[in-house]
Amino acid sequence: DDTHGEIVLRVNDVTHRLLVDNRTTLLDALREGIGHTGSKKGCDRGQCGACTVLCDGRRVVSCLTLAVAAEGAEITTIEGLAGDGELRPIQREFVRLDGFQCGYCTSGQLCSAVGMLAEHAAGWPSAVTADVSPDAPAPELDAAEVRERMSGNLCRCGAYPSIVRAVLSAAREEVAG
Ligand code: FES
Ligand code: FES
């Protein structure tokens, strides 16, 4: 019928053709259409961040993104975050510094952290730093900045102190690529 159609999604460097309803979210397309269940559905309404993925390197909550709107983007999910199979620095530091307990929020935290570090490296202000004049150097990434910039990613286990430590520990290596 005319509410369904085929879309093409690029996910972790692989092209997928999917038949979706035009209201299908990117999260449901990833989990149910492609079988990538690493992105979690915590709230399905943009409040928890568990579904965070990267679209062209920018973090989005996939539960509030329509699958059709993600056509043409290079989507990266937790399944593809490591690239060549080696853990990337942010993943390694989450393991080393206990950045998770149950793990439900973790794929969202990791994708969000990668996007956030790129935003910070590009000089994007946060609410903490919004009053800094535009020609000021990018604020140093400290715990307060990480907490503010990751505030869309909730952790019901309360692993925040370890998450912040892991993000700060991996930050330099992640941005250096
Ligand atoms: Fe998307 Fe909670 S499931 S923000
Ligand atoms: Fe359990 Fe974050 S580790 S919700």
Automatic annotation (TrEMBL):
Metabolic or biological pathway, per its Swiss-Prot or TrEMBL entry: Alkaloid degradation; nicotine degradation
Any GO MF annotation of the entry: oxidoreductase activity, acting on the aldehyde or oxo group of donors
Gene3D superfamilies: 3.10.20.30, [2Fe-2S]-binding domain
CDD domains documented for this protein: fer2 (cd00207)
InterPro entries: 2Fe-2S-bd (IPR002888), 2Fe-2S-bd_dom_sf (IPR036884), 2Fe-2S_ferredoxin-like_sf (IPR036010), 2Fe-2S_ferredoxin-type (IPR001041), 2Fe2S_fd_BS (IPR006058), Aldehyde_Oxdr_Iron-Sulfur (IPR052914), Beta-grasp_dom_sf (IPR012675)
A Pfam family that the UniProt record links to this protein: Fer2
Keywords annotated in UniProt: 2Fe-2S, Iron, Iron-sulfur, Metal-binding, Oxidoreductase
S-adenosyl-L-methionine found in the keyword field: no
Domain 2Fe-2S ferredoxin-type: 5-81
Protein name stated in the entry: Oxidoreductase
Species this chain originates from: Nonomuraea glycinis
